[in-house]
Amino acid sequence: MSIIPISAGIPLTETEPKQKWLEEWSKQLFVKVSIDSEYGWGEVLPAAFNSPALYADIVKRLEPSLNGMEISEPGIIWEKLRKLTFSGGYGPVIGAISGVDIALWDLKAKLSKLYLGDIFGKNEQKIARYASLSRYANYEAVIRASKNIVESGFKAIKLHQTKDDTLESVKRFREEIGYGVDLMVDLNCAMNIDEAIKFANSVQRYELKWVEEPIWPPDDLASLKKINDIVPVAAGENFFDFFKFEDAVHLEALTYYQPDVTKVGGLTPTLKILDLLKKNHEQVAFHNRPHNGWIGIFASIAAARMNGVDALIETPPNGVPSQYFRYNAMITSEVIAPNGVGLSIEPIEPLPQPKDEKILIFHD
């Protein structure tokens, strides 16, 4: 079995006006797992330091431990890798495992000549897409970009503005675009609990679908519960195991749960998390960094289909760039419906490489 981490620099598709974070969101890390002439693809979100190199090194170190294992049993391999790397924490290690696990599932479905989402039987789930925008210089740019996105057909938009201009951006959005479009905001953990409660009370009148990760740390469930009592809260991209999701469900801390298949360990733990959310009738909104990686997006859709849950899918406000990917799917501004084998998508090699790595500490 061969496991190869492949860094890429597929550029973020520019909007009008041009968004910020173009360089930061133009880095990807894919994982290619092959046996003989067959192969599967996975994706890792290199969140820590925005450093693909950090995660790629961990992926390389995983390969020797998989020699002789049955590639048809991703769950057994996941358990071995988790025990092998366990040190009480998660972060980059569980992120690296994510890419390997997704690739193994892709390969398993390809060997079976099935679409991965149908590997446990056909499910026709409602997988609704929304446009997730990068950050803009000011609220005037936010509104111009949002109007263009709405005109292209999107009916749901998420903003990533600072804690200082999010409220004004929301106000202007509702005044100029109206209430016929679902609107969400991601605060990127920028507030303390007092600031977040004040914000929640102020923004309540604008009928947001959710406020995402309003506070630091992002897994402070007791504080998230307080905010969720005022406005719908979404979180989960920074929950790195099943038990944190279980705790959040029991506490009723969230309205929308956001597992990220490229961060939480791949499809194997995601399926367990989805089973928990389905049994408790919780709403699922997969997190995906809205760049042009796309493997994680298709893996999220497959997970929803495999588990039989309706879900929202976070995507960039553009189509799959065909110069970088082969894919088989029906894609509109509202839905993505894969219909190939495996994940129904794979990168076209050779991929463009990222620019010289810059360490990203934190965005507020």
UniProtKB/TrEMBL annotation:
Alphabetized PROSITE patterns for the sequence: MR_MLE_2
Named cofactor requirement(s): Mg(2+)
Coiled-coil portions: none
Domain of life: Archaea
SUPFAM superfamilies linked: Enolase C-terminal domain-like (SSF51604), Enolase N-terminal domain-like (SSF54826)
GO BP terms in the entry: amino acid catabolic process; carbohydrate catabolic process
SMART domains: MR_MLE
Pfam families documented for this protein: MR_MLE_C, MR_MLE_N
Keywords: Magnesium, Metal-binding
Record-annotated Mandelate racemase/muconate lactonizing enzyme C-terminal domain positions: 139-234
Molecular function, one GO term: hydro-lyase activity
Name of the protein this chain belongs to: Mandelate racemase related protein
